């Protein structure tokens, strides 16, 4: 039931539905909260509180992002949500603070290379991104101040909550997506190692299992 609810939210996000928007958002909020429990509230957050996001806030943007980038399988959604929650401490951060890498951020903590590609893919951000980057094609090659300027472009809610879905659909092989859709350990390992470029550590797997449970997946 939970899985079907979130899937229908994704398919229909942004459309005029018979059911009230508030009801749809509440359903999505419950699922996101189950995957990222600390996102219940930002009350009392003192470390970069302006970056803290809640499950209710995510629910306003994440379903639409899944629809925009064609993410319809609960297995993929769970993996993406788990990565976002893991990388940001359940949405506490929107830019990298540990160790404080210039240009790294968004809700999946993308590196500067991908933030430039992401900004260039968004029509309303493309002109400014080109102006900042000039003739530099790889965001990792930009000076630190310009890396941060590119990051600033994609940090607003309407972009930052969609970066992880964009990344999967543009940077991951279809074989990875197919395995993620199946919800297999193999798929999650491929996602973390072959696509994200990190290791499938125990704490990452634990967060993934938590997100799968939120979607009613085994």
Query: Shape from CA axes?
Result: globular
Specify the helix fraction band.
55-70%
Unreliable segments (pLDDT under 50, ≥5 consecutive)?
A: 1-5, 7-24
Terminal residue distance: 14 Å
Strand content: under 5%
Mind describing the biggest β-sheet? none
In DSSP terms, counting alpha (H) and pi (I) runs of 4 or more, how many helices?
Answer: 13
Total DSSP E strands: 0
Model description:
The chain folds into two domains: 2-94 and 157-214, no CATH class; 95-154, no CATH class. Helices cover 59% and strands 0% of the residues. The protein has helices spanning 2-12, 21-35, 55-59, 62-68, 74-88, 112-121, 126-133, 144-154, 157-160, 163-171, 174-182, 185-196, 202-214. The longest helix has 15 residues, at 21-35. Residues 1-18 form the signal peptide. Keywords: Signal.
Brief descriptors of the model:
0% strand, 218 residues, signal, single chain, 2 domains, 59% helix, mainly alpha, 13 helices, disordered N terminus
Summarize the structure.
The protein is mainly alpha-helical. It has 13 helices and no strands. The model is unreliable at 1-5 and 7-24 (pLDDT under 50).
Secondary-structure map with pairings?
Blueprint: H1 2-12, H2 21-35, H3 55-59, H4 62-68, H5 74-88, H6 112-121, H7 126-133, H8 144-154, H9 157-160, H10 163-171, H11 174-182, H12 185-196, H13 202-214
Helix pairs in contact: 1-2, 1-4, 2-13, 5-11, 5-13, 6-7, 6-8, 7-8, 11-12
């Amino acid at each position: 039931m939970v899985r079907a609810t979130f899937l229908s939210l994704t398919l229909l996000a942004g459309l005029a539905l018979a059911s009230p928007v508030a009801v749809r958002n509440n359903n999505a909020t419950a699922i996101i909260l189950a995957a990222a429990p600390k996102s219940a509230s930002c009350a009392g957050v003192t470390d970069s509180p302006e970056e803290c996001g809640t499950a209710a806030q995510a629910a306003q943007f994440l379903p639409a992002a899944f629809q925009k980038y064609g993410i319809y399988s609960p297995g993929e959604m769970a993996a993406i949500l788990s990565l976002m929650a893991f990388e940001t401490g359940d949405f506490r951060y929107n830019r990298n603070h540990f160790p404080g890498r210039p240009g790294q951020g968004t809700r999946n903590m993308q590196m500067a290379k991908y933030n430039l590609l992401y900004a260039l893919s968004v029509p309303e951000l493309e002109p400014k991104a080109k102006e900042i980057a000039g003739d530099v094609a790889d965001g990792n090659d930009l000076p630190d101040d310009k890396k941060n300027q590119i990051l600033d472009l994609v940090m607003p809610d309407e972009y930052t909550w969609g970066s992880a879905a964009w990344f999967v659909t543009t940077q991951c092989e279809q074989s990875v997506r197919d395995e993620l859709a199946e919800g297999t350990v193999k798929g999650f390992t491929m996602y973390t190692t072959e696509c994200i470029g990190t290791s499938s550590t125990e704490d990452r797997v634990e967060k993934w299992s938590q997100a799968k449970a939120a979607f009613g997946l085994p």
